[in-house]
Amino acid sequence: MKRNVIFAIVLAFLIAACAPNLASGDPGPATTVPTSTTVQGNSAVTEILVQATMHLLRNDTTFGDGHVFPKVLVVDRMKDGTPLTAGQITALTQAIALLGDVEFVADRDDYITDDLRPTIEGAAIITLGPVTIDGNEATIDMEMWCGGLCGIWLTYALGVGDAGWEVLGPVGPIAIS
Q1: What b/e string do you get for 146-176 counting C-beta neighbours within 10 Å, with b at 16 or more?
Q2: E-assigned strands of 1-100?
Q3: What is the per-residue pLDDT for 156?
Q4: What mean pLDDT comes out for the span 41-61?
Q5: What is the gyration radius of the CA atoms in the chain, in angstroms?
Q6: What confidence score (pLDDT) does residue 138 get?
Q7: Which residue has the higher pLDDT, 4 or 144?
Q8: 13 burial type by CB count under 10 A (0-12 exposed, 13-18 middle, 19+ buried)
Q9: Is residue 96 within 8 Å of 102, Cβ to Cβ?
Q10: Measured in whole angstroms, how far is the alpha carbon of residue 7 from the centre of its chain?
Q11: What is the reported pLDDT for 85?
Q12: 3-state secondary structure of 60
């Protein structure tokens, strides 16, 4: 029983640390990837995919800010089954390559062992979307899995700023493993 109470307290602290300002409704500071890391002329959906992915990898890993995965695997279709376009894959590749090695995969389960470890040591698997745009506001569901006890599932809110689409922060429920 004592062990369960300690676990619950530690979990509450982790959730609070990983999701600042959510209770107040303030999603925290916006993050924008410099336009030099994206393909010029991208559609809004492509720009949102890039901004959200880079925010996730730079700011919301379960290892804390500054952690870099040696390999990032991105599922080549959104959660609703919509395939990523060639332009979206190019833009994501260019942005993620600034952090390390990136590969697009058809099925994330091909990269997860039976004991819930990535088949590539230290890799993260990202599943995107779908993207919902309403004028100058958007949301995108994000999933990052890096092991049986390593993952985050959340929705980002984005808005249009001076430099284009920028992540405002998470909205709604967050699951952390």
Answers
A1: bbeebbbebebbbeeeeebbbbbbbeeeeeb
A2: 71-75
A3: 98
A4: 90
A5: 16
A6: 97
A7: 144
A8: exposed
A9: yes
A10: 26
A11: 96
A12: coil
